[in-house]
Amino acid sequence: MNKLILSVAALALSAGLASAQTVRMGTEGAYPPYNFINDAGEVDGFERELGDELCARAELTCEWVTNDWDSIIPNLVSGNYDTIIAGMSITDERDEVIDFTQNYTPPAASAYVGLSADADVTGIVAAQAATIQAAHVAETGATLLEFPTPDETIAAVRNGEADAVLADKDFLVPIVNESNGELAFVGEDVPLGGGIGMGVRESDGELKGKFDAAIQSMKDDGTLNAMIKKWFGDEALVF
After folding, report:
1. In this predicted structure, what is the pLDDT of residue 108?
2. Which CATH superfamily hosts domain 21-106+195-232?
3. What pLDDT does residue 1 have?
4. I need a surface site. Which of 9, 34, 164, 198 has the fewest CB within 10 A?
């Protein structure tokens, strides 16, 4: 009987350890090429490929969860998933609430886009809510028009609701290129943030350490730079 009890206890412990190694990866699924939902209804993009590789290197079993951007940090803190991997720039303000791994992209430029190259970026400027771009627009004195999703910010420019949009340039480049001249970059690039990293709860130092080590290994062997160029082009900033 004692052996049976010990065996059951051992199995329970093993199951607990196994479940502890399953990490839920939270992303938005609406910010190509960083993350999006493909035709099969699955999370895809740069961060899906990156996240899967990081999990393999860290010897973790990872599951993907989508969440709206405006509640992505609160739902991490409340335990609905274990990481944020969603094109989130590392900022001091966010770092007060959650912790970040080292960055997996260098600090990249943001940019304004309007219906013409001389659009008024001091007028009404659209940005996705709770982003570093929205904070920057507010600081410039322009009228900030916030939207829950990045697609809505582009639509606001196209329908004349906003004079311009400010967003990550990597996100904007394919949209401008595919607009057949309808959209244009306005002015100079705007450097913001400290690069993009994975968000984790401040209590999850061990998990942060595993992903930090995995990111560093990809930097060291060149696979991260290759992946960045695959998704963002040969002109993308790399490490």
Report:
1. 84
2. Periplasmic binding protein-like II (3.40.190.10)
3. 38
4. 9
pTM: 0.82
How far apart CA 84 and CA 146 sit, in angstroms, is: 21
Q: Three-class SS string for the chain?
A: CHHHHHHHHHHHHHHHHHHHCEEEEEECCEECCCEEECCCCCEECHHHHHHHHHHHHCCCEEEEEECCHHHHHHHHHCCCCCEECCCCECCHHHHCCCEECCCCECCCEEEEEECCCCCCCCCEEEEECCCHHHHHHHHHCCEEEEECCHHHHHHHHHCCCCCEEEEEHHHHHHHHHCCCCCCEEEEEEEECCCCECCEECCCCHHHHHHHHHHHHHHHHHCHHHHHHHHHHCCCCCCC
* CATH, range 109-191: 3.40.190.10
Contact 227, 49 (CB under 8 A): yes
Is the alpha carbon torsion for 58, 236, 192, 126 positive or negative? negative
